[in-house]
Amino acid sequence: MRKNVVAGNWKMNTTLQEGVALAKEVNEALCGVTPKCDVVICTPFTHLASVNAVIDTNKLGLGAENCADHKSGAYTGEVSAPMVASTGATYVILGHSERRQYYGETSEILKEKVALALENNLTPIFCIGEVLAEREDGSYNEVVKKQIEEALFHLSAEDFGKIILAYEPVWAIGTGKTATPEQAEDMHAHIRNLIAERYGKEVADNTSILYGGSCKPSNAKELFAKHDIDGGLIGGAALDAASFMGIVTAF
User: Fold this and answer.
1) Global pTM value
2) Any alpha helices (H) in the chain, and if so which ranges?
């Protein structure tokens, strides 16, 4: 079933102590509030178990920012999907543009990560999006289509239905630039049409597609009002509880 979702991506920010304190703030802010969306925080690996111990997981979902493309073995420094699941986390961000850009993640690698996440009952928040040159040369629809087709369209309809998509115009991440609500809606509608062509209208209508590109309390309401935008994957604004809650309450 299609849900509204607001997910915070803390990236490589906060020490363990700072992260636990921030999680407590968000958890407390949710007390006595009934958001019109699912609320998730995705923290560094080091924080997961400690954060899980201090939040009400009925109100606040917990996710990792990545997982390995192997289940176990001699992969020093990697963290597997079973390890993530063992902390109590139930979500994992996959395919973030920073992972693609800095760590060379390909569609083949991401196929493995998606499979392992699903195998371990983790909900993937799967990121797609174009860089500025692709936006400017008009190839952005094809770029996003290729990212989805190569990494996800081999899945059964049942498994695809377990995935949340996050469209992140890479040119708008951390730059202060934001796609206009119309630009974002156009891409979200394009993504939903691609899903409908592959899996049918029902699966497409039930897929949550988040916007991730400098979403803030000041622009969240306008973005979330669009038909095909089902919430946000939030970066910098998720590092302040009041700012994050300003987005959560934008629905």
Assistant:
1) 0.97
2) 16-30, 48-52, 81-86, 97-103, 107-119, 132-136, 140-152, 157-160, 181-199, 201-205, 217-224, 241-248
Tell me how far apart the alpha carbons of residues 144 and 48 are, in angstroms, rounded to a whole number: 30
Query: How far is residue 50 from each of residues 26, 55, 172, 199, measured CA to CA in Å?
Result: 15, 9, 32, 39
Comparing CA positions, the residue from 106, 103, 107, 148 lying closest to residue 129 is 148
168 is catalytic: yes
How big is the CA angle at 221 (ends 219 and 227), to the nearest 5 degrees?
115
Asked if 215 contacts 241 with a C-beta cutoff of 8 angstroms, the reply is no
Has 188 been annotated as catalytic?
no
Distance, CA of 189 to CA of 171 (rounded, Å): 19
Q: Give the length of the chain.
A: 251
- Using CA atoms, how far apart are residues 177 and 188, in angstroms rounded to an integer? 18
Is residue 100 a contact partner of residue 130, using CB atoms and an 8 Å limit?
Answer: no
Sign of the four-CA dihedral 236, 214, 223, 143: negative
Q: Which of 96, 98, 134, 185 is catalytic?
A: 96
**CA distances from residue 112 to 11, 105, 161, 215 in whole angstroms, order as listed:** 22, 11, 17, 29
Residue 57 amino acid letter: T
Tell me which of 65, 98, 105, 168 is the catalytic residue. 168
The pLDDT tens digits of the residues spanning 110-133 come to 999 999 999 999 999 999 999 989
pLDDT tens, position by position, 177-202: 778 999 999 999 999 999 999 999 99
Buried b (16+ CB within 10 A) or exposed e, 215-240: bbbebbeebbebebbbbbbbbbbbbe
How far, in Å, CA of 241 to CA of 91, rounded? 20
